[in-house]
Amino acid sequence: CVLCGRTDDCPEKYGEKRTYVEYNLTVHYYCLLMSSGIWQRGEEGEGVDGFLITDIRKEVNRAAKLKCNICKKKGASIGCVAPKCKRSYHFPCGVQKECIFQFMEDFRSYCWEHKPVQKFPDKESRGTSQCTICLDLVEQLPIYTVLKSPCCKNAWFHRECLQYQALSAGIFFFRCTVCNNKDKFQKEMLRMGIHIPEKDASWELEENAYQELLQCYQHCDVKRCLCKKGRDYNEPDSKWEIKRCQCCGSRGTHLACSSMKSWEQNWECMECRSIFAKSGNYSKQKKRSLATSEKTDGTTCWLEEPSPKCPRQSRESQRNFLLQSPKIMCQNNLSPCSNLELPASNRVTMSLSPLMSNGNWSLRKKHLRKQRREVSNILKELKLQVNTKTTRLNINAENIWNSALKGFRQRNFSATNTIEIKFTNCKNRSKADTSPASKHCFFQLLMLHLQNSSLFEGSSSKNLSLDFQAVKENLYFEAGKMIAVSLVHGGPSPGFFSKTLFNCLVYGPENVKPALEDVADVDVAQTIKMIKYADSLSSLQSTIHDCYEFLAAAGCLRPITALCDKNMLVNDILIHHVIKRITSPLESFRQGLKTLGVLEKMQMHPDAFSSILCHKPERLSAETICDLFAIHSSSDVNKVEGADFWMSYLQDVESGESVVTLEDILFFVTGSFSIPPVGFDPEPTIKFLHIMYPVRNRLLHCLELPITKTYEQFKNKMEFTIGNTLRVERE
């Protein structure tokens, strides 16, 4: 190596050793990265990973004048960055002397005296523990060869083990082996000199590493196969297509052999059915449709939708059907978005409590905005998984749930594909609408339907409900998947999760304590109140006697010898009703939220995701709209003048001095009434041009505004264009 003078070829210690015959040059990658007098001035493909050959030779000449403080030989290209420290050394010598090299930012190096160390509490016990990578013993001491996890109290590692793990896992998969924390763990390991390469994991780069997982079972196992071409014959999109068991996946049947009319129907093999029968969960009753019931005349009957604020009915009076279609009907000649009005909960964040001062509320709003900005960056990172391959969903706005469910379950659907929406029930939507507005509209309708569906219960803050039909048809998984896809693909967030539901998803149900407000069933809530507010032992025992069957079924019977025992009883009932009762739906919902890595990010950034999942979007303000749009203009003069008129108009709209609202302006340009958590792609822009009236481009989220002499002219043109356009769309 021209920098350290060694012939060692040890990629784990010194980086890859590279030889360039045409330049008569050999260099260790780490020696080059950590040298103090050289920078990457070239493109990635130039020289050695952006280090120009001329710069490398200059660095070699500079280092030739410096003596290494460790081996006393010339060529010390690395210097300690501590103030007033003049020590220089070769990279291998620094590793041998336990110097710290930080592979981030400015690639700083610290000598053995000034290197950063990990701090341990004085009270923390010393001893030995197991390295969670190699499983050998490691001393719990603040020494160079031992590192402690910043996120787990009793996680210790050998430095060498961590470095091997980082080189194998890469920046995308290197994390704490105990708690899976990524951000905090990587930050500390980089500070302590662990090199985390910016590459995919080694197991992801291995060709055909998961080839066996791509093999699907293709064999008809029913007792009497009707296919003349044999049990292994499979013809997609026909009655001879093979459907696998939805439970085990290791048995199959032709659609015709099991009298199935559609590939979407569920099918279980005999082995799985026997298991269900023994557990008492299998039912041979015919499945009912989700949102409709058929009348005798063949017409479709829409079910009445309960108000979201109505308390849930008792188990004896629960309705037979699972989900209800929201009352957002689209006439044959209307766009599905034209009649979509935001509910009050979407327009206002929350009512201001009399006990909360304006100052505290202002701080609360600033905190929420900061968290939402953090979520936006996280979701943009997840959105990088989405490729340019498109999946088209045919959506019937009158039956949003069934058409969405059919689209998400089709075999060619992939959450990493770009989604296109085609509304099939509107005359003015004869072609597939690939604009972002159509996708915004679809996800908005879908989130509104989920909020009012019987998969959830409660008034404004909702928990999961228990519906055995939904569990059997795996609908909780589909709901979680739809929410995850909506967040990453630019749709709205649900905004209706209760704090208890969110905590169950993030921290696990075993770590959550529910409250009385989480009980939506009026009968159960009344029972809990009677127990909680019993003022004597006799009245408490009388109440328990009256609801003995309920307590026995819930497994909450306990001996009551004192009035204070009621608190433990209330806690038992709450845990059973709110958490244990919905264990199966919760687990399915969690699995659905794992789509595109959303649940993992929720668990890593709980405060940030709570701001969008448990709170409705804040009401739009003139400042928010102004910050959202980037202004472009052909001249600086017009840009400044036009920007003044634009900001003044937004302030007039916010103060109510206009016939349109800020939501109308946003919908006019983007097709969305609110700013999605991930933001808009592309980002909205404004251009000031010499045109008569404002012009929008929803595909590019671009608003072209006219240059006028007076503000009154500008305002009149805005009012006329936006007002008339939205009125025509509604009509």
From TrEMBL:
**Where is it predominantly found?**
nucleus
- Cross-referenced Pfam families: HECT, PHD_G2E3, zf-HC5HC2H
The molecular function terms in GO held by this entry are: ligase activity; ubiquitin-protein transferase activity; zinc ion binding
Gene3D superfamilies registered for this protein in UniProt: Hect, E3 ligase catalytic domains, Zinc/RING finger domain, C3HC4 (zinc finger)
Give start and end of each PHD-type domain: 1-115
Q: Which CDD domains match?
A: ePHD_PHF7_G2E3_like, PHD_PHF7_G2E3_like
Superkingdom field:
Eukaryota
**Protein name, as recorded:** G2E3 ligase
Organism name? Circaetus pectoralis
